[in-house]
Amino acid sequence: MLQKLKKIDSTIIWILCFFMLASILLIHSGIQYSPEKFAGSEMKMVIYYLLSFAALVVTSLIHYKLILKYYWYIYGAGILLLVYVSFFGKVLNGSRGWISIPHLFNVQPAEVFKIILIITLGGILMKQNKKLTFWANVIPLSLVTLLPFALVMKTNDMGNALSYLVILIGMLWIGDIKNRHALIILLLIAALSIGGIKSYITFHDQITTYLSNTEKGHWLDRIDPWLLPEEAGKDASYHTRNAKIAIASGGLLGKGYKQGTMVQTGYVPYTYSDSIIIVAAEEFGFLGVSLLLFLYFILIYRLIYIGLECGNKAGPILIVGIVAMFIYQIFENVGMFIGLMPLTGITLPFLSFGGSSLLINMLCIGVVLSIKVNDEVTDDMLPSTESLQLSKRTVL
Which of 159, 192, 221, 352 has the fewest CB atoms within 10 Å, i.e. the most exposed one? Predict the structure, then answer.
């Protein structure tokens, strides 16, 4: 065990420790406008981090291929969780996607399913010894992804649902998809994106009427500030408008810790969770945000480096899925406050308040560290019980 612990990437651990400190400080500042309502959030985050670090260490010591062997069972359990929560889940922030664990935290199965999807797609792809074909591989993998995508969209959680598609694209790429198939998929995504945006703008009135009549007007509040900021209502654009003001007012060096005007007066919602980057931008300025983004870059670089150094097929496949997930979450969270992406309820990895999101992100890091720690085994699967018995009989 000690030999394995010595192989854990120390750079990654130091970055996570810095994120823990930054998260606690930013959360403490972000709740000052209503300290009674959010009392104890910092200490809860400390507990979440301690539990998550323990989960990271345990995961890094478990051989990742043992997990891959049971990917269909894990996938099935995840789907059952999503089905359950879509009907009986607790509603928070307009999304019926939570399971409440008394005295601990609310678990969001959509967050949990990210690592489940990565494990499932990785388990399927590691068995392929040739280029992926469209009907035999791409379509089945897409269906495996679209089922949870549809279930999560049903709970009004567009942010996490889109992360599944990004994970699929990344893992198809590392799984050695044919160039023409990759081109077709990229062109299809581009066509759907451009066509969808143009259709939304052109038929905005009709879409508004339809969504209002079907009690789905919350989608307008997320998309209008992104595509039609001049036509968006004051309530719809309240979050993004104030976020942009806070970012701009931070300037180069920021206004100082707990001195952010927009943050400390409560004009920016969810500064302890989804909007935590706004706290950093207003109080520590461009340099503070740049430092955080630089550390994300180093973290992702180290994950990719471990994948490049891996001596087997399964490791890089899993790592690309995890890297794709992190890149999407960072880009979406930061981009939605500067007008690059639609407003979604997605957390900033390792910084936003939240037990389930932090735990899943740390488990993903634990899987990567497990790949590094157990890289001495280069075959595609661990020896089966039958092969071990055969070897034993041969030696005897």
Answer: 192
Q: What is the mean pLDDT of residues 113-117?
A: 97
155, pLDDT greater than 80 = yes
Q: Is the pLDDT of residue 58 over 80?
A: yes
Q: Angle CA(142)–CA(339)–CA(252) in degrees, nearest 5?
A: 125
- Reference 318, options 137, 122, 132; nearest CA is 122
Are the C-beta atoms of residues 107 and 160 closer than 8 Å to each other?
no
Give residue 149's Cα distance to chain centre.
14
What pLDDT, on the 0 to 100 scale, is given for residue 393? 44
Residue-wise pLDDT tens digits, 175-208: 989 989 889 889 999 999 999 999 999 999 999 9
Tell me the three-class secondary structure of the chain, residue by residue: CHHHHHCCCHHHHHHHHHHHHHHHHHHHHHCCCCCCCCCCHHHHHHHHHHHHHHHHHHHHHCCHHHHHCCHHHHHHHHHHHHHHHHHHCEEECCEEEEEECCCCCEECHHHHHHHHHHHHHHHHHCCCCCCECHHHHHHHHHHHHHHHHHHHHHCCCHHHHHHHHHHHHHHHHHCCECHHHHHHHHHHHHHHHHHHHHHHHHCHHHHHHHHHHCCCCHHHHHHHHHHCCCCCCHHHHHHHHHHHHHHHHHCCCCCCCCCCHHHHCCCCCCCCCCCHHHHHHHHHHHHHHHHHHHHHHHHHHHHHHHHHHCCCCHHHHHHHHHHHHHHHHHHHHHHCCCCCCCCCCCCCCCCCCCHHHHHHHHHHHHHHHHHHHCCCCCCCCCCCHHHHHHHHHHHC
